[in-house]
Amino acid sequence: MSMKNLSVIDIVNKIKSKEISCQEITQYYLNNIIKYRDKNAVLETFDDAMDRAREIDDMVASCEPDNLPALVGVPILLKDNIMYKGHVCSSASKALENYEAQYNATVVDKLLDAGVVILGRTNMDEFAMGGSCENSAFGPCKNAHDDACVSGGSSGGSAVAVALDMCAFALGSDTGGSVRQPASFNGVVGIKPTNYRVSRYGLMAFAGSLDTVGIFTRSVEDNALVLSIIAGKSEDDATTMDEPVEDYLSKITGNIAGKKIAIIKEVQELVNKTEQVGLFQNVIEYCQKHGAIVTESVLPEYPMILPVYYTTAFAEVTTNMNRYDGVRFGNAVASEDYIEMVSKYRSDLLGCEVRRRIMLGNFVLSSEHYNSYYLNARKMAGIIKSKFLDILKDNDVIFMPTTYGEAFEIGSKTSDPVSMYIEDMFTVTANIVGLPAISVPVGTGKRGLPIGLQILSSPFNEGEIYNMADFVSRRCDHE
Ligand code: GLN
């Protein structure tokens, strides 16, 4: 029986009905990981994956199907910054190359309780800083559909693994687009939930006010199912909100009649300059044809979002990176002198982009520059946030592109960091404002590579997003 591109929901059903065993599906994905190893999407497969699959099969043999957990036997991959006790978690950095997680992330505990098998860890930009996966200390991850192009980042490995059927779903992290942008570049579905919706306990911190754990799947329905399992208030992470977790799958109705979609004029002006303007227009017209109401809002401050994001992210990352001094975590660098040891550790073991951000973060936080950079960025973030929330008072969702277009070529932006940062123009909003946002494949670009549409909604309104995204993802079936 073919196991190709099975959905999470199919896998659970087939395991429950004993049509396939967990060991068979685990072996299928492990084979695919080997088959596509040149993509460099997976940094390591865990030796104990098969033992876990055997345990799951024993459980299936001895339990009534109705008593089995929701994700029984589903093999998954984790981004290399999400901790799984006793397994290496390196954030794709030389500094943490052999670092073993000391505890499970909350999301890992929740998924293990739900019955998953963790196959391994995926490639990423070092410490999640980047938008192409070229900043990995272990080499770039290539696009699922074109070896010459980037996978996107920072969670590039997870996106490629899902696109090429190396797992049933994968987790990533999204601080400014790291789930949605690679999802768009590789033709899969990627959600960044509302800030503080999913526990970050056990996620290596990048920028605390912006970090989220996100999900990559091949279908919108699978994504909705997984979010219902990992979301929620957690004792381990005091920032998680006590909002009810919905059964997101049940929010997918197949109907968008009467739904209000906002387009932002300043974003539309940018879209008009891109190759995907026609595609974007088609999706909007399709939604209108099926009863959605589309309106345009103005947000003159929109172009400020990128400097706001980078100033905030640099500042927060500088604080977070302080803990990497060569004493507490990861590889040590021998030296008699503490200062020399820390500086050697950082200069020898941290990559160029990480060091750049630590320096820029110290600059924006320095007493001389704090007011003009950091404080102004926070003020502008507040203004943009209230305007977005106003737009969402009158609308169910906002449509935006996820990226300027399809994946770019490996090496084409590495010598000019600002050109790489500009790529994040459409994704950083959701993190700054704290909104849930999804990227869903809607077509292809000139090169034939996938392009995603981004759908945002008000905080904790993931159900609305899933309903709209599912509808849009079935556009070809309906037309
Ligand atoms: N590309 C963005 C950055 O480099 C976002 C990264 C992320 O979401 N982790 O900061």
Task: Describe the model.
By secondary structure, the protein is an alpha/beta fold. Helices cover 39% and strands 13% of the residues. It has helices at 8-16, 22-35, 49-62, 106-113, 156-163, 180-186, 220-230, 265-271, 277-289, 305-321, 338-349, 352-365, 371-394, 417-422, 428-433, 462-473, 475-478; strands at 42-45, 75-79, 117-122, 169-174, 189-192, 212-217, 260-264, 293-297, 397-401, 437-444, 450-456. The protein has an eleven-stranded mixed β-sheet, sandwiched between helices. Helix 4 links the parallel strand 2 (75-79) and strand 3. Helix 2 runs antiparallel to helix 3, helix 7 packs antiparallel against helix 16 (462-473) and helix 10 packs across helix 12. The structure holds glutamine.
Neighbour order of strands in the largest sheet = 1-3-2-4-6-5-10-11-9-7-8
Share of β-strand residues = 5-15%
Number of helices: 17
Query: How widely separated are the two ends?
Result: 31 Å
Number of strands: 11
Which cofactor or ligand species appear?
glutamine
Largest sheet: 11 strands, mixed
Give me the secondary-structure category.
alpha/beta
Spans of 5+ residues with little confidence (pLDDT < 50)? none
List the helices and strands in order: HHEHEHEHEHEEHEHHEHHHHEHHEEHH
Question: What is the general shape?
Answer: globular
Share of helical residues: 25-40%
Estimated radius of gyration: 21 Å
Give the rounded overall mean pLDDT: 96
